[in-house]
Write a structure and sequence with these properties.
Helix 1 links the parallel strand 1 and strand 2. This protein has about 325 residues and is α+β, with helices and mostly antiparallel strands. Helix content is about 35%, strand content about 25%. The chain folds into 2 domains: about 240 residues, BirA Bifunctional Protein, domain 2, CATH 3.30.930.10; about 80 residues, CO dehydrogenase flavoprotein, C-terminal domain (Enolase-like, domain 1, 2-Layer Sandwich), CATH 3.30.390.50.
Length: about 325
């Protein structure tokens, strides 16, 4: 496994571009671990409506970056008290939407530090029932990118103020606020350590599980040039990070065990003219082709059901089932 310590940058635009670059341009036969940190930022899930997820005035006043990532799931707050980890490897069916193997090193590292953590729900790591890590995945050709956050010593007050968490999500978790649901790892440690020492504990746990030491990979000047180009073309653009919601005359929203789905459709003379789907579901790939394929379909349940049957819904919508998705598309 190759290890990339991306401490050369705390710019979220660059760091997300670096992830994508490694996934799509370095040797696909290798496995990679990246550890990285961002200055204050909100990282939006691939399928989310950005303006519905952030407190825009607070974000602007506090100069918090807003950047969309490749993977699905919900919006997360990053600062220098948060450590991010990314695994990139060959995809096998058992890895898809199963975060156990990717989070095992974190659980093992914390156990050695005297903290009991566990994988709970769809994609969360918790300590005493409180979340300190969210995880998501993205599939590209035959490789999978699985990444997660680790709240080590983040500003949780700022986290709460920056994110606009939907009421139905809070209620689905059985808690009263975002702040009461999350925790920092540092609060639970028996001995005080730095985030750099914690980073080493994660690396050691991965090496122990792999049964081998890392080979460190450092970005070349050519790598850095290509990462910056990708950053400018995608992660620094308004269209990618915010985008525009299409005109619609049908809008349906539902929360399922697999996440929230919000459907915006423009229907004219019984046919779908335009469609956009938002949500924090853990889809593994882009919805662009799926949304494009909705255009021209008769807005009838049997037609829409047949369309859904032609697609790998797990890759598109994670654990949202066909009938759940259909109920949201048809507003029933």
């Amino acid at each position: 496994m190759l290890y990339i310590d991306n401490s050369i940058s705390t710019d979220p635009h660059f760091n997300l571009a670096a992830e994508e670059y490694v996934l799509k341009n370095l040797d696909p036969e290798e496995e990679y671990l990246l550890l990285w940190q961002n200055e204050p930022s909100i990282i939006i899930g691939r399928h989310q409506n950005t303006l519905a997820e952030i407190n825009l005035d607070y974000v602007r006043e506090n100069k918090i970056h807003v950047v969309r990532r490749l993977s699905g799931g919900g919006a997360v707050y990053h600062d220098l008290g948060n450590l991010n980890f990314t695994f990139i490897k060959k995809a096998v069916q058992s890895d898809l939407l199963d975060f156990k193997s990717f989070t095992e090193p974190v659980i093992r590292a914390l156990a050695k530090l005297g903290v009991k953590a566990e994988l709970k729900g769809r994609n969360d790591l918790t300590i005493d029932g409180r979340k300190f890590s969210g995880n998501a995945q993205y599939l590209y050709k035959n490789n999978i990118l699985s990444h997660g956050t680790l709240l080590f010593d983040s500003d949780l007050t700022r986290l709460q103020k920056a994110l606009k968490v939907q009421k139905d999500k809070i209620e689905s978790k059985g808690v009263k606020s975002v702040r009461s649901r999350v925790t920092n790892i540092k609060e639970h440690l028996k001995e005080d350590i730095t985030i750099e020492e914690f980073k080493k504990a994660i690396r050691d746990a991965v090496a122990e599980i792999q049964g081998e030491n890392f080979v460190q990979y450092e970005f070349t000047e050519e790598d850095l040039k290509k990462i910056r180009t990708l950053m400018e073309k995608r992660f620094l653009t308004w269209d990618w990070n915010y985008g525009q919601s299409p005109a619609c005359n049908i809008r349906n929203s539902k929360r399922f065990d697999g996440g929230k789905v919000e459907v915006l459709l423009e229907v004219d003379k019984g046919h779908i003219v335009n469609g956009k789907i938002y949500g924090d579901f853990l889809g593994l790939v882009s919805l662009a082709d799926f949304e494009e394929g909705l255009k021209g379909l008769r807005y009838e349940e049997d037609v829409i059901r047949d369309y859904l049957k032609k697609h790998d819904l797990q890759k598109l919508f994670g654990n949202i089932g066909q009938e759940e998705l259909l109920s949201c598309l048809m507003g029933r």
